[in-house]
Amino acid sequence: MNLKIGSTIWYVPDCYYPEKSSEGYYESHEAICVLNTGDRDANLNITLYFEDREPSSGFKAICPSKRTNHVRLDEITDGEGRKIPRGVPYAIVLESDEPIVAQYSRLDTTQAELGLMTTMAYPL
Fold it and tell me: Residue 61 to residues 78, 85, 113, 114, 116: CA-CA distances in angstroms?
């Protein structure tokens, strides 16, 4: 049975990777959690939008068929090896060549009372 669900474009308007280092065992990070229930791998393209600079694109990932992929945004690089900047608010447009479901999560461990925030991305 093919449970092909989701959308090919997803929006996350509130992203932020803290500048400050983590205080404890866990490292602060962000992730886009992707679910692909289809029969083909989903090729993902991520574009970042900022308050005070031009968009940044070229961030790519794959979510295999009938799998999930937690794309760590603190580890991903664009085609020129650049990472997502720390301490800068940004938004994400996630595009896929296959229907997927996307969720965004942020783990902030910059203080002892760490915080976890997660939200479903907005589909088009």
Answer: 10, 18, 32, 28, 23
Based on C-alpha coordinates, what's the Rg of the chain? 15
**pTM of the predicted structure, to 2 decimals:** 0.85
Question: Residue 70 in contact with residue 82, Cβ under 8 Å?
Answer: no
pLDDT, tens only, 43-84: 999 999 999 999 999 999 999 999 999 998 889 999 999 999
Token digits of residue 35: 């679910």
Q: Name the superfamily (CATH) of residues 7-123.
A: TM1070-like (2.60.290.11)
Enumerate the domain spans of the chain.
Answer: 7-123
